[in-house]
Write a structure and sequence with these properties.
globular, 4 helices, alpha+beta, 4-stranded antiparallel sheet, 132 residues
Amino acid sequence: MVTLEDARKIIAAAEKKAKELGQPMNIAVADEGGNLVAHVRMDAAWIGSIDISINKAFTARAFDISTKDLATQSQSGGQFFGIHVSNGGRVMIFAGGVPLKRGGKVVGAVGVSGGSGEQDHAVAEAGAKAFG
């Protein structure tokens, strides 16, 4: 289970990393069902990335895989090619979504958007480490 308290810790750690990178981000935390628990839009983060961060968290939980890894497997010729059009278009196939695990089981996810894919993934990883 991912509680609101958990989500706040995840977001705080992710915000810290985003500030270190000098990149304002949107940070979303989803529960085991892929539902939003909490979201933060840092000052000056793109409003267009709000939905993307939420959907990255959904994707990471829906498929129990980081969106960075899903991206490599969903290119033309890959085993998941075309997956991005499933689930009403909510599936994000670029970096920034990371599953949250407790006791070896995926119980939620964090999604980050607002920087490069590398930055988004690093910020999401920082948030996920705060959960573990």
